[in-house]
Each structure stands twice: as C-alpha cells, then as structure tokens.
Amino acid sequence: MPEKIFQAGYMSGDSYSASAYMAIEPNARIILVKDTKEPQDKTDSVVLKFYRECGLADRVDLFDISGTTIKAKELWTAIKDNYKERAPAPPKQTFVGAPTTTPQLLSRFYYDIVPKNSWPRAITAVTGLLANAFESGYGESAKKVADLWKIGKFDTDTKFALWEYAGTRFAKTGVDNIRNNIVVIWSRQSGKKGGAHVELDSSYAGIKQIVDYFAPAKATVILAGDERNGKLAALAAGSTQVVNCAEMWKDKFWSDHFAGVPVLAQLAFFKFLEEGFKVIHVGMRSGMLETMGLLGMTTFYLEPDVCPSGDRMLAFSRANIPYTRIQIQAPPGLTAWDAQTSIESGVRAPTLNGWNRKLSGQIDFLMRNNSYRNFYFYSDTGPRGRRLFHPDQAQRDAEIYAKAKIMLEKRLNPSAPTYKTDRDKILEDLLTKNPDTVKAELKAMRGFYQTDLDKITGAIESQFRT
User: Fold this and answer.
1) Domain 150-325+450-461 has what CATH class?
2) φ and ψ at 378, to 5 degrees?
3) pLDDT mean over 287-312
4) What is the pLDDT, as a whole number, of residue 384?
5) Burial class (CB within 10 angstroms; exposed 0-12, middle 13-18, buried 19+) of 391
6) What is the phi/psi pair of residue 146, to 5°?
7) Which end of the chain is less crowded, N or C, counting CB atoms within 10 A of the terminal residue's CB?
8) Is there a contact between 263 and 50 (Cβ–Cβ < 8 Å)?
9) What confidence tens digit (pLDDT) does each residue in 417-451 have?
10) Does residue 261 contact residue 255 with C-beta atoms inside 8 Å?
C-alpha cells in the first residue's frame, strides 16, 4: 500500500531513512513542510537538496508556511499521532490558493494527497516500515537502497576520485599505514544549535576518550560530523592515526568531482573505504548513523538508558540491519546531561535556550552579589593594596562556578526535605575553592562514565577484523 509521510523541514536527519523507504516503496510520497520561522529549518539547504540528488523530488509535496502564522512544530504535534490512533477525518475546507491555516493544511493533507482520504504517516514511522521491508527481503531491499544512493560496485573513474580524496585526507597517515580497522566517530551538535534532542548531542570530551583508546595502537580513527571551534581538528592533530573528516560536506572536492550528487558521494566514500578495511561507525543516535547501518556497515549508536524517543530504532536490529544500540548511564556533555536529567524526572527536556537562560541566571546572581564577587572575582592587587576588579575575568570565573553549581545540583533529589538547603550548600562549598580547582572538577564531569566507555570500546573492538 502506498504511504504518504509527513516531514517538517527541521527534521533533516530523517531524510536519509525516508529516501531509503521511498526506494523500496515506489509509490510512497513525502509531505514536506517548510517553515523559515523555525531556526532549524533546512528544507532548501539539506532536505530538498538530498531528495533531488536521489531523484525523488517529483515525489515530494512541498508546503511553505513561512509566510503564515502556523508553526511547523505545532503542526507536527497536531498531526503526528492521527494515523496511528485512527483519528476521525478533519473537516473538509474549501479555499482558493495555498492553505494558510492549520485546518486548511490538515484538509489538504488528508483529502488531496495520495492516498486520498487518509491521514499521513509520521516521519518516525519510517523506521518500522523500513525494518519490515528488510525483514521480508533483506538482499533486495539493501540493493534498492544502494542503487538509489548510487552506491554499488564503483566504476574506475569513481574509484580514482575517491582514492584521490582518501589520499588527501590520509596524507599524514599514509595510505599504506592505515590500520585494518577504522573507527569512525560521529559528532552530533544539532541540539546545541537549537535543534531537537539536546540529550543526544555529542561531547568533545567523550569523543576524545574514544580516540585515546583506539588511536595509540588499536585502530585508525576518523572524526566525522559536526565541528565546533576547531575541536575535532585539535584532536586529530595529536596523532597520525586520527584523521579529521569533520564537516567534509563543505569541501569543494565533492562539487568538483561529483556535480549533482555531492552528498551521495560522501556516503560512497565510507562504503568505498570498506572495500579495503573494516569500517565501524559510532556516535550518539542520529540520522546519518542510520544511513551507515542501511549501507551494511557495522554501526553503534549511543543513547541514555532512559530515552523515550529511542525504542523505535530497535526495529533495525530486528531486521538484521547492523545498527546496534549501546545504552549509556548518562550523556557525556553538560548540556546533554542537564536535558537528560529533566527527561528522567518526567519533565520535557529544555532547549538550548532553556539551558542558556538557566546558566545566565546563575552568572548574573554571582556577578550582582557583592559578597560573592568580593570573595573571588578579583585577580590582582593595585596601589595601596587594593584588590582590582576585572569584569572580563570575573565573567569567565562566574561561568565556571555557575556551570559547576548547575551540574552538582542535578545529583540532588528535588523531593528530599533538605533539597533547598543542600542546593545552597553547593554554592557555599564551591566558593571555598579557587576557579582553577572548580574548572578541573567541572572538566571531570564531562565525558563518559568509565563503565560506559568500557561498554562502547568493548562493543567496537568485538567487531574488529584480525
């Protein structure tokens, strides 16, 4: 039966699995909603661009609500469960031109898009639909996906081009010195940029822990995905066996050598490497990692033990797609940890703006309160023995104390009778320490718990080619 799938433009990571499903089900369609009022909308820059590369643009029904008062996230809430819950049909609307209200949109989605007179499926349903297809015919489904993404047996010209790129990226390592096993560590930072699931963002401290385990002697490491402030580049600089492919989509190479299909060519790069090496992918759960699993590469995705959004992904493992969950006790980063503790408390995870507001409130408190400011935020002594206040240094120190206070408070039980007293005591205890000490303690809170790190590295190493 043909399906119509609802996708909002800010759900760019879902485009890969959606396109894979469309490869298998030739009559499936995407209802794509563009809303530039949403900061993370990537309709033009990512979603449509990818569907065009796949040759699927004629199966995408685009609705641009940017000029209306409708918000994409509110529309998603209004529609996501209707198919599953067999919701009644919406009132049929009569209007001229493009829909400009939610009732008009719902009417158009339900009555006019094939299959007509039915609710669209949520984009999250694609996981199960794909898994069902792979279960009923793994080889045939995998081939259809590989063909859609133009990844199969590489012709000579493609091989030469991909070897050229590999030679550039692995220049410091030397192609002959690449180890038998390549661990690709994916960095996900979309939550910190204002997107969904802050709790699934990567931590550069966590990435470094995995690098430090494998790079010295066990495997060649590729760093891929989102970069910030040159952190992945700095990690790669420390070893000839750590190769930086962060944000490789920005490289001019792809448009020069693969005009029209630059994104698909980047997927081909990793599959091409697997012809000569064992390539294992790992990272916090993301749409890009799903792609690697769908291409048949060993893939491990990380998510916290409590993760309401994650169970649907288990369908891939059921269908023998090599996309395997590793559950961790806590996210490795501070903002992710903060969001995760909210989830575990039954509270909706705060957005990045929520975290920043909380942090700013703590910093402002420390900067405004003279008793605290006088206590530590003076850095040297001026004439007549007077301590000099340096606002910039004070701001930096206050941020360190504020972050440490927030994260330490996360360990308290809000329902305990001593909660408020304990919360106040945390700040009191912090202020008995100098900023460098607090900074070191804050650094220690970042990264994976050792038990989680052991679980991650053990799972990866169990798949090594000897």
Assistant:
1) alpha beta
2) -115, 135
3) 92
4) 65
5) exposed
6) -60, -40
7) C
8) yes
9) 999 999 999 988 998 888 889 999 999 889 999 99
10) no
Q: Quick check: 372 and 366 in contact, CB under 8 A? A: yes
Burial of 282 (C-beta count, 10 Å sphere; 0-12/13-18/19+): buried
d(Cα 72, Cα 66) in Å, to the nearest integer?
9
Helix axes 435-445, 391-409, angle to 10 degrees: 40
* Ranges of each domain in the chain: 4-132, 150-325+450-461, 341-445
pLDDT tens, position by position, 365-415: 888 876 565 556 655 666 666 666 677 788 888 899 999 999 898 888 888
Across 233-260, average pLDDT: 93
SS3 letters for 61-119?
EEEECCCCCCCHHHHHHHHCCCCCCCCCCCCCCCCCCCCCCHHHHHHHHHHCCCCCCCC
Amino acid letter at 205? Answer: A
What is the maximal distance between C-alpha atoms in the chain? 85
Nearest to 278 by CA among 222, 204, 316, 321: 222
Q: Residue 188: phi, psi to the nearest 5?
A: -115, 120
Q: How many residues are given for the chain?
A: 466
Per DSSP, helices labelled H in 274-417 are 287-294, 314-318, 334-344, 352-368, 370-376, 391-409
Distance in angstroms (rounded) separating the CA atoms of residues 284 and 332: 10
Nearest 5°: the CA angle 141, 142, 146 is 120
Amino acid (one-letter) located at 20: A
Residue-wise pLDDT tens digits, 114-144: 999 999 999 999 999 999 999 999 999 999 9
The reported pLDDT for the residue numbered 456 is 98
Task: Note every long-range contact of 154-161, with CB atoms under 8 Å and residues 24 or more positions apart, other chains counting.
Answer: 154/268, 154/272, 154/275, 158/268, 158/272, 159/272, 161/257, 161/258, 161/265
